[in-house]
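# step 3/5: fold
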Amino acid sequence: MKTIVALQAAITAASLDFEPTPAELDAIEQEMPLIRAEVELLDAQIMTIDRPVNELDERRIRRARRRVLAARRALANTTADEVA
């Protein structure tokens, strides 16, 4: 009887040896402003989880949402420019 675990380990190990292609790295780099803006929004929302939201928190969340929207707009515009 053959063990399935040994076969599975060989398959799994081979699939983890790949690195991102240069095209994938360029795509990540292009989306990095949006990723940073989303992380900033998430940080602002996390800070308000365990306490009441005050005026400063509302401003921080509002600014973070605006940055996310601006980053999404910029990313969509650059993507649209590249396609056209």
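# step 4/5: annotate
Helices lie at 4-15, 22-47, 55-83.
# step 5/5: archive (pending)
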